[in-house]
From TrEMBL:
Residues 1-142 form the Phosphotyrosine protein phosphatase I domain. This is protein-tyrosine-phosphatase. The keyword Acetylation does not apply. Its EC number is 3.1.3.48. GO terms for molecular function: protein tyrosine phosphatase activity. The active site is at residues 7, 13, 117. Transmembrane segments: none annotated. It comes from Hufsiella arboris. PANTHER family: LOW MOLECULAR WEIGHT PHOSPHOTYROSINE PROTEIN PHOSPHATASE (PTHR11717:SF7), LOW MOLECULAR WEIGHT PROTEIN TYROSINE PHOSPHATASE (PTHR11717). It comes from the Bacteria.
Length: 143
């Protein structure tokens, strides 16, 4: 299984989803591939936001080596599932879908809830981490 986590900037939320999912995949001995990307292009090549690195580190997950990239249409071919954080990410990714098969790969990480953008509110990083962890745990088979 190949999973892509997507948010707007690929520096706050999707790097957390990427790191948390990778740690769960390892913990459960799954041979899955995980990556993340942003719909926007502002931060390409950058490491995650220092506040995301810090909150992940607090809970034992190292995301410091990740490197921001932009979502590309070919991601629809490579990945089996594409998880987005909020409805605007959902609209942006679906807008790039070429057909129904592409569309069917795209889901909100939390299904009925949205993961808020913490970029302008540092107090959101801890609750966002917890929400993303809950979403990632649901993806593990048997959960
Ligand atoms: P993210 O947060 O989508 O969770 O990575 C953001 C990071 C940067 C920007 C927006 C959202 N930005 O506009 O630069």
């Amino acid at each position: 299984m190949k999973i892509l986590m997507v948010c707007l900037g690929n520096i706050c939320r999707s790097p957390l989803a990427h790191g948390i999912m990778e740690s769960l995949v390892e913990k459960h001995g799954l041979n899955w591939e995980v990556d993340s990307a942003g719909t926007g292009n502002w931060h390409i090549g950058e490491a995650p936001d220092s506040r995301s690195i810090a909150i992940a580190k607090k809970y034992g997950v190292d995301i410091s080596k990740q490197c921001c990239r932009q979502f590309r249409v070919s991601d629809f071919d490579y990945y089996d599932r594409i998880y987005v954080m909020d409805k605007s990410n959902l609209a942006d990714v679906l807008n790039l879908a070429r057909n129904m098969a592409d569309e069917e790969k795209v889901k909100l990480l939390l299904d009925t809830e949205v993961v808020p953008d913490p970029y302008y509110d540092h107090k959101l990083f801890d609750p966002v981490y917890q929400m993303i962890k809950r979403g990632c745990e649901r993806i593990i088979p048997g959960n």
